[in-house]
Amino acid sequence: MAESAASQQAQPVRESFGSRLAAAMLERGPLCVGIDPHPQLLADWGLNDDVAGLERFSLTVVEAVASLAAAVKPQVALYERHGSAGMAVLERVLAASAEAGVLSIADAKRGDIGSTMAAYADAWLRDGSSLAADSVTLSPYLGFESLRPALDLAAQYGRGVFVLALTSNPEGKSVQHVGGEQSVARRIVSAAAAENQRYEGVLGSVGLVVGATIGSALTDLDIELGPVRGAILAPGLGAQGATPADLRATFADAYPQVLATSSRGILAAGPSAAALRDAAEETLAGLRS
Amino acid sequence: MAESAASQQAQPVRESFGSRLAAAMLERGPLCVGIDPHPQLLADWGLNDDVAGLERFSLTVVEAVASLAAAVKPQVALYERHGSAGMAVLERVLAASAEAGVLSIADAKRGDIGSTMAAYADAWLRDGSSLAADSVTLSPYLGFESLRPALDLAAQYGRGVFVLALTSNPEGKSVQHVGGEQSVARRIVSAAAAENQRYEGVLGSVGLVVGATIGSALTDLDIELGPVRGAILAPGLGAQGATPADLRATFADAYPQVLATSSRGILAAGPSAAALRDAAEETLAGLRS
Fold first, then answer.
1. Residues in contact with B20: Cβ distance below 8 Å, sequence separation at least 6, in sequence order
2. pLDDT in tens, B121-140
3. Looking at the complex, does the CB of residue B145 fall below 8 Å from at least one CB of chain A?
4. For position B95, which CATH number holds?
5. Tell me, what's the pLDDT at A236?
6. Contacts for B258 with CB less than 8 Å, ≥ 6 apart
7. Quick one: pLDDT at residue A8?
8. Is residue A121 assigned to a domain?
C-alpha cells in the first residue's frame, strides 16, 4: 500500500482540501454545522439512543444543511459510543455528505506516532477507506511533527487536517499556555504555518482548532493566526456562548479564515428539516453581517 | 443512563483496575503484550491485510499469551484503519481477552472535553458497551482535568486509564518538555498522582504512558514516578530498542510500577502459538531477572 501511495504522489487525485474549503466558504459563507448526536438531543428529537436513532438524526442533519453549510462536522465520539455499529453509521454519514456535496470534517482528535499514526491517517484520509472524510481533527500531545503521516497523506489525497491548538475549556491552559513566550499553543500554530507553505492558494490544507470563546488568549500568548494561511475551526458559536460579533473581536484580522462551528444552536431546531435549514440560514446571516 | 450510573456509584461492580492489575503483575510478571496487526506483520504471518487477517492475527495472540501476560494492548488505530468492520474485530478481541482472563488496555489515545469526553468514556469504560476494555489510553492535550468523565467512569466501573505523559519520540519534546521546572509532562504526572489518592492499595487505577526509551528525561525534567502510585505503561521493549536493563536504569525506584510493553519483539515470533508463548516467556524471564 505504501508503494502504490508513493507512486500516486505526483498527481493529486483531487484539488487540495484548502482550495475546496476556501471555495465553499466563499460561495456559502463560513458555517460548519456540527453533527452531535448527544443522548439528550436524540431524546429531544423523539429518537432512541441507539443505532437507528443515531442514523436518523445524522442523515436528517446532512440532508437539511448540505446545500447551505461549507462543511459538516460529525463528532466521532458520539458514534464510537455505539461501538462498531455506531462507526458503521458514521461511514454512511460521511458517504451521504460526499454525495450531497458538502465537505466533511471527522472530529476524531486522533494522534499517535510512527506507523500507528500512519494507521490513523489510513483510516480517515486514504481513498478507499470506509471512514475517509474530507478532513479530520488531530491532537498533537506527541508533538506536531508526530502527525507527519497524516499531513503527508492529506496532501497526497487532497484531504485536510485540523490540529488542536488553543481551546476554550479552562483546563486546557495547563498544557496549551505552558512555556511563556514560546507556549505550546504558539509552537503548534507556527508549525502549522510552516506546513502550509507546501500549498498554494488562499488556504493551505492544514487548519487549526481554536475555540470561539478563548477571549484574549491569542493576544496574551502573542499568537498570530493570519500567517497560518489555514482555516480556523472555531467551535463554540451559538449554544456554547459565542456570537458572530465575539468571533470578529477574537479573531480580528484572521476572521476571514474562521470556519465557525455551531452544533446545538442549530441542532436544537430539529427534527424538522425546514427548521434546521432556517436555523442554519439565520446563523449564516449573523456570520455574514 | 447518567442517572442509573450515579445510583451505582456506591457499590463498585468489580475490584478496582489498579488492584486487579497489581495482582496480575505480581502473579505473572510485568509484561504487557501489544497486539499490533500492522500490514507488514500480517504479511509475515501469511495473512491478508483485511478483516479476516486482522481477526485471525489478534485472536491468535490473545490465545497464545492470555495465561502469561499481565495484560494485552490492542492498538486501536490498526483496527480503525479497517473501518467499522475492523472495530467489530476489536470488539471480539476485547471479549476474547476478558474470557481468557487477561486484562485489556485499549490503546486508543482518546481525548476531548465535556460531553464529548463523556462519550469516549462511555465507549471504552462503561459496562454494556461493546468496546469496553479494562482500561484505555488517553491523550491530555486539552488538559488532564478535561479527562474527568473518563477518570470518574473508570472509578465507578473498576476500570482504568493510562494518560500520555512522556514519550520517547523526539518530536514529543516540543509539547511535553515545554515549561522549564513546571513542564507539561511534570504537570500531567502530578495530576495523576493526585487523582490516585482516591484509590487504596498498591496501585491506583490512573496509570501513565512513559516511553521505555526516554533516557534521562525523568531526571532532566525532575519527574518522580514513585509518588504517582499508578502503573507505568512503558512501550518500547524489544524490537523498539529497550532492554529490561534499560527499563531498570530509566525507571529506577519506580521499576516495580512498570508494565513493560513488547509488541513486535514478541509478535515477530508468530504465527505459531507455541513460538509466541516462548517469546513471551523469554521476555518475562528477562524482566524478572
1. B14, B103, B134, B158
2. 999 999 999 999 999 999 99
3. yes
4. 3.20.20.70
5. 87
6. B30, B231, B232, B234, B247, B251
7. 47
8. yes
Angstroms from B97 CA to nearest CA on chain A: 17
User: Is the residue at A194 inside a domain?
Assistant: yes
Residue span of the structural domain in which B73 resides: 13-288
- C-alpha to C-alpha distance for A201 and B218, rounded to whole angstroms: 44
Chain centre distance of CA A94: 13
CA A125 to CA B5: how far, in whole Å?
36
Q: Which amino acid is at B257?
A: Q
CA angle, B106 then B255 then B12, to 5°: 45
Question: b/e map of A187-226 (b: 16 or more CB within 10 Å)?
Answer: bbbbbbbebbeebeebbbbbbbbbbbbbeebbeebebebe
From chain A residues 195-254, the ones with a CB under 8 A of any chain B CB are: none
Number of domains in chain B: 1
For residue B191, give the C-alpha cell.
495530576
Measured in angstroms, the CA of B253 and the nearest CA of chain A are apart by: 26
Residue A116 lies in a domain: yes
Q: Are A178 and B179 in contact (CB under 8 A)?
A: yes
- The answer to whether B183 faces chain A, any CB pair under 8 Å, is yes
Alpha-carbon distances, residue A156 vs A7, A9, A121, A200 (angstroms): 10, 5, 11, 14
At B3 the pLDDT is 45
Cell numbers linked to A22? 476556501
Phi and psi at residue B166, to the nearest 5°: -140, 115
- φ/ψ (deg, to 5) at B135: -160, 165
**CA dihedral sign, ordered A227, A229, A235, A236:** positive
Read off the pLDDT band of B2 (50, 70, 90): very low
Q: Is residue B7 part of a domain?
A: no
> Beta-carbon neighbour count of residue A241 at 10 Å?
13
Half-sphere exposure of A236 (CA within 13 A, CB side): 25
Give the model confidence (pLDDT) of B19-50 as tens digits.
999 999 999 999 999 999 999 999 999 999 99
- Chain Cα centroid distance, residue B80: 17
Q: What is the pLDDT along chain A (289 residues), one digit of tens a residue?
A: 444 444 445 566 899 999 999 999 999 999 999 999 999 999 999 999 999 999 999 999 999 999 999 999 999 999 999 999 999 999 999 999 999 999 999 999 999 999 999 999 999 999 999 999 999 999 999 999 999 999 999 999 999 999 999 999 999 999 999 999 999 999 999 999 999 999 999 999 999 999 999 989 999 999 999 999 999 999 988 877 899 999 999 999 999 999 999 999 999 999 999 999 999 999 999 998 7
Sort out which chain B residues have CB atoms less than 8 A from A83's CB and list them. 87-88, 91, 123, 129-131
Average pLDDT of the residues of chain B: 94
